[in-house]
Amino acid sequence: MRGNDHQLQHLLTQRSLEVAILIFPEVEVLDFAGPFEVFSVAGRILKQDGRAPFRVSTVAAEAAPVLARHGLPVTPSFCFADRPAADILIVPGGIVTQPLDDARTLDWIRATARQAGLVASVCTGAFILAKLGMLEGRSCTTHWDDIRELRRDHPDLDVLEDLPYVDEGAVVTSAGISAGIDMSLHLVGRILGADAARKTARQMQYDWVPQERDAAA
Predict the structure, then answer these.
(1) Is residue 211 part of a domain?
(2) Given 42, 86, 109, 123, which residue is catalytic?
(3) How many domains does the chain have?
(4) 140 is known as an active-site residue
(5) How confident is the model over 161-187, as pLDDT tens digits?
(6) Which listed residue, of 104, 119, 196, 207, carries a Cα 20 to 30 Å from 63's Cα?
(7) Which of 81, 95, 93 minimizes the C-alpha distance to 21?
C-alpha cells in the first residue's frame, strides 16, 4: 500500500475526504462528470458510521457558471477563494488553453496539490500537470489523439499509450474522456479496497474491467 493511501485512510477515520474537481472554460464534460459520478456514488453506497467517505465538489476561478464543451453551463460548487482544503484533486481536460495560460488557475492547482494526498488528471489535463512540473520523473498518459503533442511539448516525459490510466502513486494520469471513470474507480479501490470499487461500478451499471493490479488488490 502506498504511503499517501495510509494518510487518506487515516483521515477517513475522522471525516469525509474532500474531492475537488477543477472546471474551466471548454472543460470536457465527461472528464469532470465521470469522476464526479464515481466518487459521489461511492460516497452514497459505502457510508461508514453514517458518514460518506467522499465529499465531492467542482471548483472554478469564480463563483459563476462556466461554459464547458459544447456550450454546457456548469455552476461550480466553490470558487478558488472559498474551497476547503482538498484531499484529492482532479484536473480534467478538454480545450486547456485557458488554464494553461491563466496564472491564477495554475497557482491554485499548485497550492492545492501541495496539500492533497492524491492528484489526478483526465485526458489533456496531463498538459496542465506537465506545465507545473508534476509529471517530471514519472510515467504518464493522455488522450490517444494528444500523445504525440504531449511528447513533443515535454520530451523528457515518459508518455505511455494504450492504457486507461497510469498510477505513479501521488500522481495518477488517465487517457481520454471516459477513461477518467476507470481511473476514478481505481482510486476508490486504492483507498477503500477493490470490493468497494466493484460495488461502485455495479451501482453505476458501468462495465469496468480492472487492470491486473486492481483485480489482485
Answers:
(1) no
(2) 123
(3) 1
(4) no
(5) 999 999 999 999 999 999 999 999 999
(6) 119
(7) 93
